[in-house]
């Protein structure tokens, strides 16, 4: 299942470009796209466009802005519309899935949003308890953006490291720079 969604996503990315990557990360940020292998798609996109900053910067920007937009959409949906993601089938979160993020938010406040967004596997989960707190939408968005930027930077580093490793062992570099 993941192989076919990965191949489909890469095919769409090849055909429609950065817009697909943006949409994938919006879905990931809104918890709906947690079943999409976004890390793999992101690294593959970086490898495909090349290691030149001018080439990969739009890819990173699309991922960061998309993830932030998705998380803000989730945040506003919970806060303003009373949406409960644990009740939506396409969102893979259990009732107790927000307990850990709630503890992090209680303990560290808004910086916990940035930190959890920088860590694979915990991204977006803290949006639900934060939406139910007194944190403003602007502060949430800024913390989400900061964490997503750190996350994208780490993934760019991984992609560039893979590209260099492939070139070092005598393979053809994947990046076309």
Could you state the order of secondary-structure elements as H and E? HHHHHHHH
Contiguous runs where pLDDT drops below 50 for at least 5 residues: none
Largest sheet: none
Count of separate structural domains = 1
State which percent range the strand residues make up: under 5%
Give the N-terminus to C-terminus distance in angstroms: 32 Å
Q: Would you report the number of β strands?
A: 0
The shape, in one word, is globular
Q: By helix and strand content, what is the structural category?
A: mainly alpha
H/I helix tally: 8
Task: Describe this protein's structure.
Helix content is 69%, strand content 0%. The chain is an all-alpha fold and 177 residues long. It has one domain. α1 crosses α2, α1 packs parallel to α3 and α6 runs parallel beside α8. The radius of gyration is 17 Å and the shape is globular. The protein starts with a helix and ends in a 9-residue tail after the last helix. The mean pLDDT is 80.
Topology diagram in text:
Elements: H1 2-16, H2 18-29, H3 38-49, H4 53-81, H5 99-108, H6 111-117, H7 127-131, H8 137-168
Helix pairs in contact: 1-2, 1-3, 2-4, 3-4, 3-8, 4-8, 5-6, 6-8
List keywords for this structure.
177 residues; mainly alpha; 8 helices
Short description:
The protein has one domain. Helices cover 69% and strands 0% of the residues.
């Amino acid at each position: 299942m993941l192989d076919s969604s990965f191949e489909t996503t890469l095919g769409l990315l090849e055909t429609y470009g950065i817009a697909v990557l943006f949409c994938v990360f919006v879905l990931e940020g809104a918890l709906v796209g947690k079943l999409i292998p976004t890390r793999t798609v992101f690294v593959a996109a970086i490898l495909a466009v090349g290691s030149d900053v001018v080439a990969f910067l739009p890819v990173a920007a699309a991922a960061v802005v998309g993830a932030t937009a998705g998380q803000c959409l989730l945040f506003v949906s919970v806060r303003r519309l009373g949406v409960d993601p644990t009740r939506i089938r396409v969102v893979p979160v259990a009732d107790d899935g927000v307990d850990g993020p709630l503890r992090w938010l209680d303990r560290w406040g808004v910086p916990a949003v940035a930190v959890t967004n920088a860590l694979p596997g915990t991204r977006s989960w803290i949006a639900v308890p934060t939406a139910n707190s007194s944190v403003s939408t602007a502060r949430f968005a800024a913390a989400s953006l900061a964490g997503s930027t750190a996350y994208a930077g780490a993934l760019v580093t991984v992609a560039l490291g893979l590209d260099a490793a492939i070139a070092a062992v005598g393979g053809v570099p994947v990046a076309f720079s």
